[in-house]
Amino acid sequence: MERSLTDAAVQALARIFATVDDGQGHEACSKEIDPNHAVQVVLQKLVTPMGDKKPAPIEVLVDVVTDVNRAHPEDAPQKLAPEDYANIASEIDDFCMNKSRGLEQVYEVIRQVTVP
Fold it and tell me: How far apart are CA 103 and CA 98, in angstroms?
C-alpha cells in the first residue's frame, strides 16, 4: 500500500523536527536529523510575506510553477482551465519522481557529495 503525499510529508517533517534524548534527559543533538533547525527557518521564511501587501515567497513560487506549466503558457493571465490543472499536476509529478532529471536526481547529487 502506498502512502499519500500528505502522509509522507507529515512523517518526514516529524522526523526532521524530532529531538533525540540521550537517555539521561538531555538532547543528543549529534543524533538529530536537523540539530540547527535549518528546515524550520527555511519553512518560516517561505511563508512569511516579503513586506506590506506583498506575497510570501511560497506564493511567488506557486504562481511561477502554475504559469510556466499550464497546458498553454501563453494563456497565463487567463483563469486556469481543467487541462491546465492536469498539465501542472503531471509536471510536478514528473519533477518529484523522475530519477534522471527531477528531485530524485537532486537527492542523488547531494548523496554523492556528502558520502565520505
Answer: 7
- Answering whether pTM is above 0.70, one says no
Residues 87, 69 contacting (CB under 8 angstroms): yes
Q: pLDDT band at residue 51, thresholds of 50, 70 and 90? A: very high
State the cell numbers at 16. 526532521
- CB distance 44 to 58 below 8 Å: no
Give the ranges where the chain is alpha helix by DSSP (H): 5-17, 38-47, 57-68, 82-97, 103-114
Place of cell 527531477: 102
14 pairs with which residues across the strands?
A: none
